[in-house]
Amino acid sequence: MSTLLLITSSPTSVHAWHALGLAQALHSNKQAFRVFFYQDGVAVANALQWMPDDQRKLTSEWQKLAIHLPVCVSAALARGITDQENAQRHNIQQHNLADGFELVGLGELADAVQTSHRLIQF
């Protein structure tokens, strides 16, 4: 059974950390799952976020999983997050998409919903 984790909560929310915990559990148990970052959840892909050294970094924790990390391009651009390609296309001075994350369209979310057995939103 495959699971889709739809992450819409801000990285400062406890819900975003619960999503990571479930992803880590699914990954360690070798269970099929996909993730999709949408709405305020896209902020996890901002490479310019700063966290104190004594706090875990949600972005880094997702990167450690070494899985496909799709981020809604429209939601990301609306929140000031972009990759190099979209920065050039939209005349934005610099890009700040964290390594390992990829800007994608909502078609990828539609595909994930269609092919998953269950969807859990955080």
From TrEMBL:
Locations listed in the record: Cytoplasm
Gene3D superfamilies in the cross-refs: DsrEFH-like
Superkingdom, taxonomy of origin: Bacteria
Source species: Acinetobacter celticus
Protein's UniProt name: tRNA 2-thiouridine(34) synthase TusD
Short name of any one Pfam family annotated for the protein: DsrE
GO molecular function, one term: sulfurtransferase activity
Keywords: Cytoplasm, Transferase
GO biological process annotation, one example: tRNA wobble position uridine thiolation
